[in-house]
């Protein structure tokens, strides 16, 4: 399974080096890409422009449509990844 996480700082630069558990957990570096999502991060950024923010989540398809679905096994993967990042703070 390809575990891709979107992890960028406020300037769009990857911060995977700052929080690198992906390679340790899954044996490969994460694939970082931009998508049209993360509205909440944009709202927080307006109020807190110096914060580093990240938006991660499980794999979803057809979001905000009648075909929306969640790939349930990806929830555990994202949860474990989030715990690993929090342990490093």
Q: What descriptors fit this protein?
A:
two-stranded antiparallel ribbon; mainly alpha; 89 residues; globular; 3 helices
Secondary structure elements and pairings:
Blueprint (H helix, E strand, L loop, with lengths): L20 H6 L12 H9 L12 E2 L7 E2 L2 H16 L1
Antiparallel strand pairs: 1-2
Rg is 14 Å
Shape: globular
Percent of residues in beta strands: under 5%
Task: Write the H/E string, N to C.
Answer: HHEEH
Number of H- or I-type helical stretches:
3
Coarse structural class: mainly alpha
| Record field, number of beta strands | 2
- Read across the widest sheet, the strand sequence of neighbours is 1-2
Q: What helical percentage do the residues reach?
A: 25-40%
| Integer average pLDDT | 76
Give a short summary of the structure.
The protein is built from three helices and two strands. The chain is mostly helical and 89 residues long. The protein has a two-stranded antiparallel ribbon with strand order 1-2.
Folded structure, characterized:
This protein has 89 residues and is mainly alpha-helical. Helices cover 35% and strands 4% of the residues. The protein has helices at 21-26, 39-47, 73-88, and strands at residues 60-61, 69-70. It has one domain. A hairpin with a 7-residue loop joins strand 1 and strand 2 (69-70). The radius of gyration is 14 Å and the shape is globular. It has three helices and two strands.
């Amino acid at each position: 399974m390809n575990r891709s996480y979107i992890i960028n700082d406020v300037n769009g630069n990857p911060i995977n080096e700052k929080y690198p558990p992906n390679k340790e957990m899954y044996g490969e570096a994460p694939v970082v890409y931009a998508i049209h999502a993360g509205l909440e991060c944009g709202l927080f950024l307006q109020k807190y422009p110096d914060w580093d923010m990240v938006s991660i989540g499980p794999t979803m398809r057809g979001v905000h449509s009648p075909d929306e679905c969640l790939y349930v096994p990806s929830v555990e993967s994202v949860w474990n990844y989030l715990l690993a990042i929090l342990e490093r703070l």
